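Subject: for your reference before the review

Hello V.,

The reviewers asked for a structural picture of the protein, and I figured it would be easier to keep everything in one thread rather than splitting it across files. Below is the amino acid sequence we used in the manuscript, unchanged from the supplementary table.
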Amino acid sequence: MQQLVRQKNLIAVCTLALLAAMTLARAEAQESLPAFTDLVEANSPAVVNISSTQSGGQGSSTRDMPDLPEDHPFRDFFDRFGGENGGDGAPPRPFDAESLGSGFIISSDGDIITNYHVVRNADEVVVKLSDRRQFTAEVVGYDERSDLALLTIDAENLPTVSIGSSSDLSVGEWVLAIGSPFGFEHSVTAGIVSAKQRSLPQDNYVPFIQTDVAINPGNSGGPLFNLDGEVVGINSHIYSRSGGFMGLSFAIPIELAMDVVQQLRTEGRVARGWLGVLIQDVDRDLAESFGMDRPRGALVAQVTPDSPADEAGLKPGDIIVRFDGREVGTSSDLPPMVGRKRASSEATVEVIRDGERREFEVTLGELPDDLAQRQQPGSPDKRQAPAEPETFFGMRLRDLSSQEREEMGLDQGGVLVEGVDAGPAAEAGVRSGDVITMLDQKRVDSLEAFREIAEDLEGGRVVPLLLLRNGSPRFLPLRLPEDD
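And here is what came back from the structure prediction:
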Protein backbone atom coordinates (compact mmCIF):
# COMPACT_ATOMS: atom_id res chain seq x y z
CA MET A 1 0.00 0.00 0.00
CA GLN A 2 2.76 2.45 0.95
CA GLN A 3 4.56 1.62 -2.32
CA LEU A 4 1.41 2.52 -4.29
CA VAL A 5 1.14 5.86 -2.49
CA ARG A 6 4.80 6.63 -3.24
CA GLN A 7 4.21 5.83 -6.94
CA LYS A 8 1.21 8.18 -7.05
CA ASN A 9 3.18 10.94 -5.35
CA LEU A 10 6.04 10.48 -7.82
CA ILE A 11 3.65 10.71 -10.75
CA ALA A 12 2.12 13.87 -9.31
CA VAL A 13 5.56 15.46 -8.84
CA CYS A 14 6.59 14.58 -12.39
CA THR A 15 3.35 15.96 -13.77
CA LEU A 16 3.82 19.24 -11.93
CA ALA A 17 7.41 19.49 -13.12
CA LEU A 18 6.33 18.87 -16.72
CA LEU A 19 3.60 21.52 -16.50
CA ALA A 20 6.08 23.99 -15.01
CA ALA A 21 8.56 23.28 -17.79
CA MET A 22 5.88 23.75 -20.45
CA THR A 23 4.74 27.02 -18.88
CA LEU A 24 8.33 28.29 -18.74
CA ALA A 25 8.95 27.28 -22.37
CA ARG A 26 5.77 29.01 -23.47
CA ALA A 27 6.74 32.18 -21.61
CA GLU A 28 10.23 32.14 -23.13
CA ALA A 29 8.75 31.64 -26.61
CA GLN A 30 6.42 34.59 -26.10
CA GLU A 31 9.32 36.73 -24.93
CA SER A 32 11.31 35.80 -28.04
CA LEU A 33 8.55 36.96 -30.40
CA PRO A 34 8.80 40.61 -31.45
CA ALA A 35 6.43 43.19 -30.01
CA PHE A 36 4.95 45.40 -32.72
CA THR A 37 2.83 47.74 -30.63
CA ASP A 38 5.38 50.56 -30.27
CA LEU A 39 6.33 50.32 -33.95
CA VAL A 40 2.69 50.54 -35.06
CA GLU A 41 1.90 53.41 -32.70
CA ALA A 42 4.89 55.41 -33.91
CA ASN A 43 4.39 54.87 -37.65
CA SER A 44 0.64 54.57 -38.26
CA PRO A 45 0.14 58.37 -38.44
CA ALA A 46 2.42 58.51 -41.50
CA VAL A 47 0.46 55.84 -43.39
CA VAL A 48 -2.42 57.13 -45.53
CA ASN A 49 -5.45 55.74 -47.32
CA ILE A 50 -5.68 56.61 -51.01
CA SER A 51 -8.78 56.51 -53.20
CA SER A 52 -8.84 57.49 -56.86
CA THR A 53 -11.72 57.91 -59.27
CA GLN A 54 -11.80 57.39 -63.02
CA SER A 55 -14.94 58.81 -64.60
CA GLY A 56 -16.52 58.30 -67.97
CA GLY A 57 -17.02 54.54 -67.95
CA GLN A 58 -20.05 53.20 -69.77
CA GLY A 59 -22.54 50.57 -68.72
CA SER A 60 -22.85 48.61 -65.52
CA SER A 61 -19.96 47.51 -63.35
CA THR A 62 -21.50 44.02 -63.41
CA ARG A 63 -21.20 43.40 -67.12
CA ASP A 64 -21.18 39.60 -67.08
CA MET A 65 -24.84 38.89 -66.57
CA PRO A 66 -26.09 35.29 -66.32
CA ASP A 67 -27.65 33.75 -69.40
CA LEU A 68 -31.04 32.91 -67.91
CA PRO A 69 -33.93 31.13 -69.62
CA GLU A 70 -36.99 33.16 -70.58
CA ASP A 71 -39.14 31.75 -67.76
CA HIS A 72 -36.51 32.19 -65.02
CA PRO A 73 -37.93 34.21 -62.06
CA PHE A 74 -34.91 36.58 -62.06
CA ARG A 75 -34.80 37.13 -65.84
CA ASP A 76 -37.02 40.23 -65.66
CA PHE A 77 -34.95 41.64 -62.78
CA PHE A 78 -31.65 41.40 -64.70
CA ASP A 79 -33.24 42.74 -67.89
CA ARG A 80 -34.59 45.78 -66.05
CA PHE A 81 -31.67 46.61 -63.77
CA GLY A 82 -28.60 44.64 -64.66
CA GLY A 83 -28.21 44.68 -68.41
CA GLU A 84 -25.58 46.58 -70.34
CA ASN A 85 -28.17 49.08 -71.51
CA GLY A 86 -29.47 49.75 -68.02
CA GLY A 87 -32.80 48.04 -68.71
CA ASP A 88 -35.75 48.78 -71.01
CA GLY A 89 -33.42 49.44 -73.95
CA ALA A 90 -32.04 52.61 -72.40
CA PRO A 91 -28.60 53.84 -73.52
CA PRO A 92 -25.56 52.81 -71.43
CA ARG A 93 -25.21 54.72 -68.18
CA PRO A 94 -21.81 56.19 -67.28
CA PHE A 95 -20.27 55.11 -64.00
CA ASP A 96 -17.24 56.07 -61.93
CA ALA A 97 -14.61 53.41 -61.33
CA GLU A 98 -12.86 53.63 -57.97
CA SER A 99 -9.47 52.34 -56.88
CA LEU A 100 -8.38 51.95 -53.27
CA GLY A 101 -4.84 51.71 -51.96
CA SER A 102 -2.35 52.88 -49.39
CA GLY A 103 0.65 55.17 -49.25
CA PHE A 104 3.04 56.80 -46.80
CA ILE A 105 4.32 60.31 -46.15
CA ILE A 106 8.02 60.93 -46.82
CA SER A 107 8.18 64.70 -46.23
CA SER A 108 6.45 66.90 -43.69
CA ASP A 109 5.17 69.23 -46.43
CA GLY A 110 3.09 66.53 -48.10
CA ASP A 111 5.05 64.23 -50.43
CA ILE A 112 3.57 60.71 -50.53
CA ILE A 113 4.67 57.48 -52.21
CA THR A 114 2.23 54.89 -53.54
CA ASN A 115 1.88 52.41 -56.39
CA TYR A 116 1.20 53.78 -59.85
CA HIS A 117 -1.62 51.29 -60.42
CA VAL A 118 -3.50 52.85 -57.47
CA VAL A 119 -3.74 56.22 -59.27
CA ARG A 120 -3.53 55.13 -62.92
CA ASN A 121 -5.71 57.30 -65.20
CA ALA A 122 -7.27 58.94 -62.14
CA ASP A 123 -9.41 62.06 -62.51
CA GLU A 124 -9.25 62.67 -58.77
CA VAL A 125 -7.01 61.31 -56.01
CA VAL A 126 -8.10 61.68 -52.39
CA VAL A 127 -5.71 61.10 -49.48
CA LYS A 128 -7.12 60.41 -46.01
CA LEU A 129 -4.84 60.80 -42.99
CA SER A 130 -5.03 58.87 -39.74
CA ASP A 131 -6.68 61.90 -38.04
CA ARG A 132 -9.51 61.71 -40.64
CA ARG A 133 -8.45 64.81 -42.54
CA GLN A 134 -8.85 64.46 -46.31
CA PHE A 135 -6.91 66.15 -49.10
CA THR A 136 -7.13 66.16 -52.87
CA ALA A 137 -3.68 65.08 -54.04
CA GLU A 138 -1.68 66.08 -57.10
CA VAL A 139 0.20 63.39 -59.00
CA VAL A 140 3.71 64.85 -59.28
CA GLY A 141 4.92 62.01 -61.50
CA TYR A 142 4.90 58.27 -61.97
CA ASP A 143 7.03 55.45 -63.33
CA GLU A 144 5.06 52.64 -64.91
CA ARG A 145 7.99 50.22 -65.12
CA SER A 146 8.49 50.20 -61.35
CA ASP A 147 4.78 50.79 -60.57
CA LEU A 148 5.57 53.84 -58.43
CA ALA A 149 3.90 57.24 -58.16
CA LEU A 150 4.77 60.41 -56.24
CA LEU A 151 1.85 62.45 -54.87
CA THR A 152 1.73 65.69 -52.95
CA ILE A 153 -0.91 67.33 -50.77
CA ASP A 154 -1.16 70.91 -49.49
CA ALA A 155 -0.32 70.41 -45.82
CA GLU A 156 2.42 71.15 -43.31
CA ASN A 157 4.01 69.53 -40.25
CA LEU A 158 2.91 66.07 -41.27
CA PRO A 159 4.28 62.91 -39.63
CA THR A 160 6.79 61.04 -41.77
CA VAL A 161 8.32 57.57 -41.93
CA SER A 162 11.98 56.72 -41.48
CA ILE A 163 13.69 55.31 -44.57
CA GLY A 164 15.75 52.16 -44.08
CA SER A 165 17.69 49.80 -46.34
CA SER A 166 16.34 46.68 -48.01
CA SER A 167 19.88 45.48 -48.74
CA ASP A 168 20.37 44.97 -44.98
CA LEU A 169 17.36 42.63 -44.79
CA SER A 170 17.99 38.95 -44.21
CA VAL A 171 15.78 36.09 -45.32
CA GLY A 172 13.78 34.99 -42.27
CA GLU A 173 13.77 38.48 -40.73
CA TRP A 174 10.51 39.84 -39.30
CA VAL A 175 8.74 42.59 -41.27
CA LEU A 176 5.43 44.39 -40.80
CA ALA A 177 2.94 46.03 -43.18
CA ILE A 178 0.46 48.81 -42.46
CA GLY A 179 -2.24 49.57 -45.02
CA SER A 180 -5.91 49.53 -45.97
CA PRO A 181 -6.81 46.03 -47.18
CA PHE A 182 -10.34 45.95 -48.62
CA GLY A 183 -10.73 49.53 -47.39
CA PHE A 184 -10.13 48.70 -43.70
CA GLU A 185 -7.82 51.58 -42.77
CA HIS A 186 -4.60 51.12 -40.81
CA SER A 187 -4.68 47.35 -40.67
CA VAL A 188 -1.46 45.73 -39.49
CA THR A 189 -0.02 42.39 -40.62
CA ALA A 190 3.33 40.79 -39.85
CA GLY A 191 5.49 38.02 -41.29
CA ILE A 192 9.00 37.25 -42.45
CA VAL A 193 11.14 37.91 -45.52
CA SER A 194 10.79 34.79 -47.68
CA ALA A 195 13.32 35.71 -50.40
CA LYS A 196 15.08 38.65 -52.02
CA GLN A 197 15.90 39.70 -55.59
CA ARG A 198 12.76 38.11 -57.02
CA SER A 199 12.02 38.86 -60.68
CA LEU A 200 8.39 38.82 -61.83
CA PRO A 201 7.02 38.70 -65.38
CA GLN A 202 6.81 42.20 -66.91
CA ASP A 203 8.76 43.60 -63.95
CA ASN A 204 12.33 42.81 -64.95
CA TYR A 205 13.75 46.04 -63.56
CA VAL A 206 12.48 45.52 -59.99
CA PRO A 207 14.28 43.06 -57.65
CA PHE A 208 11.29 42.36 -55.41
CA ILE A 209 11.35 41.43 -51.73
CA GLN A 210 9.18 38.34 -51.26
CA THR A 211 7.41 38.01 -47.91
CA ASP A 212 4.66 35.96 -46.30
CA VAL A 213 3.06 39.10 -44.84
CA ALA A 214 -0.70 39.08 -45.50
CA ILE A 215 -1.15 41.61 -48.32
CA ASN A 216 -4.60 42.03 -49.87
CA PRO A 217 -6.26 44.45 -52.33
CA GLY A 218 -5.99 47.89 -50.75
CA ASN A 219 -2.54 47.24 -49.24
CA SER A 220 -0.91 48.29 -52.53
CA GLY A 221 1.42 51.24 -52.06
CA GLY A 222 1.70 50.82 -48.32
CA PRO A 223 4.98 50.57 -46.41
CA LEU A 224 6.86 47.45 -45.33
CA PHE A 225 8.74 48.05 -42.06
CA ASN A 226 11.64 46.30 -40.40
CA LEU A 227 11.71 45.89 -36.60
CA ASP A 228 13.59 49.20 -36.26
CA GLY A 229 10.52 50.98 -37.60
CA GLU A 230 12.19 51.83 -40.93
CA VAL A 231 10.53 51.47 -44.32
CA VAL A 232 12.39 48.83 -46.34
CA GLY A 233 9.87 48.24 -49.11
CA ILE A 234 6.58 49.20 -50.76
CA ASN A 235 3.93 46.50 -50.92
CA SER A 236 3.03 46.07 -54.55
CA HIS A 237 1.96 42.59 -55.71
CA ILE A 238 0.31 39.48 -54.41
CA TYR A 239 0.36 36.02 -55.91
CA SER A 240 -3.19 34.78 -55.84
CA ARG A 241 -5.64 32.66 -57.77
CA SER A 242 -8.58 33.98 -55.80
CA GLY A 243 -7.77 37.69 -55.43
CA GLY A 244 -6.82 37.23 -51.77
CA PHE A 245 -3.64 36.54 -49.87
CA MET A 246 -2.07 33.09 -50.39
CA GLY A 247 1.26 33.44 -48.63
CA LEU A 248 3.21 35.17 -51.42
CA SER A 249 3.50 38.95 -51.51
CA PHE A 250 6.08 41.19 -53.11
CA ALA A 251 7.48 44.58 -52.14
CA ILE A 252 9.54 47.10 -54.11
CA PRO A 253 12.91 47.77 -52.39
CA ILE A 254 12.97 51.21 -50.80
CA GLU A 255 16.32 52.16 -52.38
CA LEU A 256 14.84 51.75 -55.85
CA ALA A 257 11.73 53.70 -54.83
CA MET A 258 13.69 56.63 -53.43
CA ASP A 259 15.83 56.76 -56.58
CA VAL A 260 12.64 56.94 -58.66
CA VAL A 261 11.26 59.66 -56.38
CA GLN A 262 14.43 61.71 -56.71
CA GLN A 263 14.28 61.55 -60.49
CA LEU A 264 10.59 62.43 -60.55
CA ARG A 265 11.27 65.44 -58.33
CA THR A 266 14.20 66.76 -60.34
CA GLU A 267 13.58 65.57 -63.90
CA GLY A 268 9.88 64.76 -63.98
CA ARG A 269 10.68 61.36 -65.49
CA VAL A 270 12.74 58.25 -64.81
CA ALA A 271 15.71 57.30 -67.00
CA ARG A 272 17.34 53.86 -66.78
CA GLY A 273 20.54 52.45 -68.12
CA TRP A 274 20.29 50.23 -71.19
CA LEU A 275 22.71 47.54 -72.34
CA GLY A 276 20.85 46.25 -75.39
CA VAL A 277 20.75 42.48 -74.93
CA LEU A 278 18.05 39.85 -74.68
CA ILE A 279 19.01 37.28 -72.07
CA GLN A 280 17.88 33.96 -70.68
CA ASP A 281 18.73 31.84 -67.68
CA VAL A 282 21.40 29.12 -67.79
CA ASP A 283 20.09 25.72 -66.72
CA ARG A 284 22.15 22.58 -66.13
CA ASP A 285 22.02 21.34 -69.74
CA LEU A 286 22.90 24.74 -71.19
CA ALA A 287 25.79 25.06 -68.74
CA GLU A 288 27.08 21.69 -69.97
CA SER A 289 26.68 22.76 -73.60
CA PHE A 290 28.83 25.85 -72.96
CA GLY A 291 31.45 23.88 -71.02
CA MET A 292 30.62 25.42 -67.63
CA ASP A 293 31.04 23.58 -64.35
CA ARG A 294 27.70 24.85 -62.99
CA PRO A 295 24.75 27.02 -64.09
CA ARG A 296 25.26 30.73 -63.50
CA GLY A 297 25.07 34.08 -65.24
CA ALA A 298 22.84 35.59 -67.93
CA LEU A 299 23.07 34.02 -71.39
CA VAL A 300 22.96 36.57 -74.23
CA ALA A 301 20.44 35.33 -76.81
CA GLN A 302 20.36 38.51 -78.90
CA VAL A 303 22.30 41.75 -79.18
CA THR A 304 20.32 44.74 -80.44
CA PRO A 305 22.05 46.36 -83.45
CA ASP A 306 23.81 49.66 -82.67
CA SER A 307 23.15 49.19 -78.95
CA PRO A 308 25.78 49.77 -76.23
CA ALA A 309 26.37 46.00 -76.06
CA ASP A 310 26.82 45.81 -79.83
CA GLU A 311 29.29 48.70 -79.86
CA ALA A 312 31.24 47.15 -76.97
CA GLY A 313 31.59 43.83 -78.82
CA LEU A 314 29.18 41.52 -76.95
CA LYS A 315 27.80 38.60 -79.00
CA PRO A 316 25.02 36.01 -78.74
CA GLY A 317 26.36 33.09 -76.74
CA ASP A 318 28.26 35.27 -74.28
CA ILE A 319 27.36 34.48 -70.65
CA ILE A 320 27.45 37.59 -68.46
CA VAL A 321 28.75 36.60 -65.02
CA ARG A 322 29.65 40.02 -63.57
CA PHE A 323 28.34 43.54 -64.18
CA ASP A 324 30.00 46.64 -62.79
CA GLY A 325 31.86 44.53 -60.24
CA ARG A 326 28.77 42.63 -59.01
CA GLU A 327 28.18 38.94 -59.57
CA VAL A 328 25.31 37.96 -61.88
CA GLY A 329 23.99 34.72 -60.39
CA THR A 330 20.94 34.37 -62.64
CA SER A 331 19.53 36.22 -65.62
CA SER A 332 17.02 38.03 -63.38
CA ASP A 333 19.91 39.71 -61.51
CA LEU A 334 21.09 41.66 -64.53
CA PRO A 335 18.20 44.02 -65.51
CA PRO A 336 17.96 45.74 -62.09
CA MET A 337 21.75 46.21 -62.04
CA VAL A 338 21.71 47.85 -65.45
CA GLY A 339 18.55 49.83 -64.76
CA ARG A 340 20.02 51.47 -61.65
CA LYS A 341 22.86 52.92 -63.71
CA ARG A 342 22.43 56.22 -65.54
CA ALA A 343 22.61 56.65 -69.28
CA SER A 344 26.11 57.55 -70.54
CA SER A 345 27.72 55.98 -67.47
CA GLU A 346 30.41 53.33 -67.96
CA ALA A 347 30.42 49.78 -66.66
CA THR A 348 32.60 46.70 -66.95
CA VAL A 349 30.85 43.58 -68.25
CA GLU A 350 32.58 40.26 -67.60
CA VAL A 351 31.51 37.34 -69.79
CA ILE A 352 32.39 33.74 -70.47
CA ARG A 353 33.09 33.25 -74.18
CA ASP A 354 34.43 29.99 -75.60
CA GLY A 355 35.18 28.81 -72.07
CA GLU A 356 37.29 31.86 -71.18
CA ARG A 357 36.53 34.98 -69.16
CA ARG A 358 36.67 38.28 -71.00
CA GLU A 359 35.94 41.86 -69.96
CA PHE A 360 34.25 44.59 -72.00
CA GLU A 361 33.93 48.28 -71.20
CA VAL A 362 30.41 49.49 -72.01
CA THR A 363 28.99 53.00 -72.16
CA LEU A 364 25.32 52.52 -71.30
CA GLY A 365 22.50 54.10 -73.22
CA GLU A 366 19.04 55.09 -71.97
CA LEU A 367 16.36 52.43 -71.89
CA PRO A 368 14.06 53.28 -74.83
CA ASP A 369 10.28 53.37 -74.56
CA ASP A 370 9.93 51.27 -77.73
CA LEU A 371 12.24 48.55 -76.44
CA ALA A 372 9.89 45.71 -77.35
CA GLN A 373 9.71 46.86 -80.97
CA ARG A 374 13.47 47.26 -81.24
CA GLN A 375 14.09 43.72 -80.01
CA GLN A 376 11.29 41.95 -81.84
CA PRO A 377 12.31 40.42 -85.17
CA GLY A 378 9.63 39.22 -87.55
CA SER A 379 8.38 35.70 -88.07
CA PRO A 380 8.89 33.60 -91.19
CA ASP A 381 6.20 33.76 -93.85
CA LYS A 382 5.24 30.13 -94.26
CA ARG A 383 3.43 30.87 -97.49
CA GLN A 384 6.76 30.76 -99.30
CA ALA A 385 7.29 27.76 -101.58
CA PRO A 386 9.80 25.68 -99.55
CA ALA A 387 12.91 24.11 -100.98
CA GLU A 388 13.51 20.40 -100.41
CA PRO A 389 14.29 20.02 -96.67
CA GLU A 390 17.12 17.96 -95.20
CA THR A 391 16.91 16.08 -91.90
CA PHE A 392 19.39 16.59 -89.02
CA PHE A 393 18.95 15.25 -85.48
CA GLY A 394 15.27 14.59 -86.13
CA MET A 395 14.40 18.02 -87.56
CA ARG A 396 13.66 18.82 -91.20
CA LEU A 397 15.46 22.01 -92.24
CA ARG A 398 15.44 24.27 -95.29
CA ASP A 399 16.98 27.58 -96.32
CA LEU A 400 15.09 30.82 -95.78
CA SER A 401 14.09 32.72 -98.88
CA SER A 402 15.44 36.24 -99.40
CA GLN A 403 11.98 37.63 -98.68
CA GLU A 404 11.76 35.71 -95.41
CA ARG A 405 15.21 36.93 -94.33
CA GLU A 406 14.22 40.51 -95.12
CA GLU A 407 10.93 40.28 -93.25
CA MET A 408 12.68 38.83 -90.20
CA GLY A 409 15.58 41.27 -90.27
CA LEU A 410 18.12 38.45 -90.63
CA ASP A 411 20.88 39.88 -92.79
CA GLN A 412 22.97 36.74 -92.33
CA GLY A 413 20.15 34.29 -92.83
CA GLY A 414 19.30 31.12 -90.94
CA VAL A 415 17.48 27.83 -91.56
CA LEU A 416 13.79 27.11 -91.03
CA VAL A 417 12.57 24.05 -89.13
CA GLU A 418 9.89 22.54 -91.38
CA GLY A 419 9.07 19.72 -88.98
CA VAL A 420 10.35 17.76 -86.01
CA ASP A 421 10.35 13.98 -85.60
CA ALA A 422 11.33 11.92 -82.58
CA GLY A 423 15.00 12.43 -81.76
CA PRO A 424 17.49 14.81 -80.13
CA ALA A 425 15.87 17.97 -81.53
CA ALA A 426 12.43 17.05 -80.16
CA GLU A 427 13.97 16.22 -76.77
CA ALA A 428 15.68 19.63 -76.76
CA GLY A 429 12.36 21.37 -77.38
CA VAL A 430 12.76 22.40 -81.02
CA ARG A 431 9.44 23.10 -82.76
CA SER A 432 8.22 23.42 -86.30
CA GLY A 433 8.52 27.05 -87.41
CA ASP A 434 11.67 27.78 -85.39
CA VAL A 435 14.51 29.48 -87.23
CA ILE A 436 18.01 28.27 -86.30
CA THR A 437 20.70 30.96 -86.39
CA MET A 438 23.58 29.36 -84.44
CA LEU A 439 24.82 25.83 -83.75
CA ASP A 440 27.63 25.14 -81.27
CA GLN A 441 28.28 28.92 -81.05
CA LYS A 442 28.89 29.09 -84.84
CA ARG A 443 26.65 31.20 -87.02
CA VAL A 444 24.27 29.40 -89.34
CA ASP A 445 23.47 31.46 -92.42
CA SER A 446 22.41 28.62 -94.71
CA LEU A 447 21.57 24.94 -94.83
CA GLU A 448 25.03 24.25 -96.21
CA ALA A 449 26.63 26.02 -93.23
CA PHE A 450 24.49 23.99 -90.82
CA ARG A 451 25.54 20.78 -92.60
CA GLU A 452 29.25 21.62 -92.34
CA ILE A 453 29.01 22.45 -88.63
CA ALA A 454 26.94 19.34 -87.88
CA GLU A 455 29.39 17.03 -89.66
CA ASP A 456 32.23 18.20 -87.40
CA LEU A 457 30.34 17.69 -84.14
CA GLU A 458 31.45 14.92 -81.83
CA GLY A 459 28.71 12.47 -80.79
CA GLY A 460 27.53 12.37 -77.19
CA ARG A 461 28.13 16.08 -76.57
CA VAL A 462 25.58 18.70 -75.58
CA VAL A 463 25.83 21.76 -77.84
CA PRO A 464 23.96 25.09 -77.66
CA LEU A 465 21.42 25.71 -80.41
CA LEU A 466 20.23 29.32 -80.92
CA LEU A 467 16.89 29.79 -82.62
CA LEU A 468 14.13 32.33 -83.15
CA ARG A 469 10.62 31.35 -82.07
CA ASN A 470 7.79 33.77 -82.88
CA GLY A 471 10.43 36.46 -83.22
CA SER A 472 12.08 35.82 -79.83
CA PRO A 473 15.59 34.32 -79.56
CA ARG A 474 16.44 31.49 -77.19
CA PHE A 475 19.15 28.91 -76.65
CA LEU A 476 18.32 25.21 -76.33
CA PRO A 477 20.69 22.42 -75.29
CA LEU A 478 20.94 19.84 -78.11
CA ARG A 479 22.25 16.47 -76.90
CA LEU A 480 23.90 14.70 -79.84
CA PRO A 481 23.53 10.95 -80.35
CA GLU A 482 26.54 8.79 -79.69
CA ASP A 483 28.71 8.00 -82.71
CA ASP A 484 28.28 4.49 -84.11
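For the response letter, the relevant points are probably these. The first strand starts at residue 47 and ends at 58. Residues 276 and 371 are 9 Å apart (CA to CA).

Happy to draft the paragraph if you're swamped.

O.
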